[in-house]
Amino acid sequence: MTLVAGIDSSTQSCKVVVRDAETGALVREGRAPHPPGTEVHPDHWWTALRQAIDEAGGLADVAALSVGAQQHGMVCLDEDGAVIRDALLWNDTRSARAAEELVAEFGGPQAWADAAGSVPVASFTVTKLRWLAEHEPENARRTAAVCLPHDWLTWRLAGAKGLGALTTDRGDASGTGYWSPSAGTYRADLLKLALGHTPLVPRVLEPVGQAGVVDSGLFPDAASVRLAPGTGDNMAAALGVGLRPGDVVVSIGTSGTVFACSGTSSHDASGAIAGFADATGRFLPLVCTLNAARVLDAAAAVLGVGVAELSDLALQGPPGADGLVMVPYLEGERTPNKPDATGSVHGLRLSNATPAHFARAAVEGMLCGLADGLDALGVEPSRLLFIGGGARSEAVRRIAPSVFGRPVLVPEPGEYVADGAARQAAWLLAGTAEPPVWGSGEPEAYEADPVPGLRARYTEAAATA
Ligand SMILES: Nc1ncnc2c1ncn2[C@@H]1O[C@H](COP(=O)(O)OP(=O)(O)O)[C@@H](O)[C@H]1O
Ligand SMILES: O=C(CO)[C@@H](O)[C@H](O)COP(=O)(O)O
């Protein structure tokens, strides 16, 4: 049996799966936590990656490996390849003002959507570079290369052999704000506009390109493990879930994302849709919220319960929570672009001031933000698939169809980002035109009646944030 490994270095943790390259059968897995916070030294990702690989039984019998990771994070390297400062993550909103400046300086939202596929908000790497230039000019000056979490981890796995060895892929490059998904080229002018000079950026590999081999000095028992290009976590999830034309995926992880595959690039000047590329040579229009699974974590903490009890409580609460509405902008928000917003609770009365109503309002509020994302995406889904840690919640599964007003499908709980990375590694071995087809179980279907007035009440409450 030929084995491949897939890695998901996401916001909260690192997960590793080892799968049979031919059938996709899961052989073993491991995970390790990441530190909290919106700026993290990349060494923590490396430590967690090594721990998760060890927990997954090592790489000795693995033929190829691929890294999927959280998108957008700014990793600045000096000319010797040393990390200059903690990476600013996708959910760090300090560059919100820098984003506004850049949008204005380059001619407005349509100009950005045309040039880079997306209108940059604080999440995008390009805005973090502008923040660096303004607030830490010495660090900006020393920045000889800039790369993303998956680029850096792949480079480290290959032995960090000089800045010229840095690689990336179309999917992750499309989240920088200085790479054009439609042209397939970097925009050095945008990079310079943000940072003041043009640092080295990773070479963009073809979807079945090879990033190198795992360094045998780091993993002495793992001789010549081939490294696939890797990609951003959402692009990896698309591969992992086997995204088909017409499908829409809702991923409830630290971020909430709503995405579909497309044969054409998107250029949304409203800024709601990020016009990403995918990991197969196509495109991945995506709407992202900053507040997803951790809204459930926070609501559970307020109520002094765990996420399982929160789910039970939410299912005891009446649909619509008798008018109690939670706007869950706990980390500010990205879509809509309200980086300074805070969360709020509306419609509180004596009659709905119960833990069950509060739990229900938290689940419904989080889902309303994602349902707005589906509306913004403008796709009528043939299948609406829910994945990510938050989709493990029974309340989320059962309440989602009543918020989205359509049936919801939930594939068997799993690590779809790591699975997608593993599938990319198997693709590298196969060298075929399309990724290998792996079997998958039937998703579970959930249906529920829409709740009258729920979305409208949420829209009204969210408008005040
Ligand atoms: N059964 C569950 N119910 C609700 N939330 C859950 C459940 N299982 C995991 N989660 C939440 O999912 C989140 C992690 O999801 P994950 O998709 O791994 O995130 P990320 O990839 O962003 O690190 C955590 O906030 C965790 O609390
Ligand atoms: O910023 C985005 C997408 O544009 C996020 O989806 C990040 O890629 C983080 O993902 P998770 O850690 O939530 O999976």
Automatic annotation (TrEMBL):
> According to its UniProt record, which reaction does this protein catalyse?
D-xylulose + ATP = D-xylulose 5-phosphate + ADP + H(+)
Where does the chain bind substrate? 71-72
Sequence ranges assigned to domain Carbohydrate kinase FGGY N-terminal in this UniProt record: 4-240
Ranges for domain Carbohydrate kinase FGGY C-terminal come to: 249-427
Stretch forming the signal peptide: none
Site location (Important for activity): 8
Q: What is its EC number?
A: 2.7.1.17
The active site is formed by: 233 (proton acceptor)
> Mind telling me which InterPro entries this protein's record contains?
ATPase_NBD (IPR043129), Carb_kinase_FGGY (IPR000577), Carb_kinase_FGGY_CS (IPR018483), FGGY_C (IPR018485), FGGY_Carb_Kinase (IPR050406), FGGY_N (IPR018484), Xylulokinase (IPR006000)
Task: Name the keywords, alphabetized.
Answer: ATP-binding, Carbohydrate metabolism, Kinase, Nucleotide-binding, Transferase, Xylose metabolism
HAMAP family per UniProt: XylB
The protein's job, in short, is: Catalyzes the phosphorylation of D-xylulose to D-xylulose 5-phosphate.
Please give the family membership noted in the entry: Belongs to the FGGY kinase family.
> Would you tell me the protein name for this molecule?
Xylulose kinase
Question: Can you name the source organism?
Answer: Sphaerisporangium aureirubrum
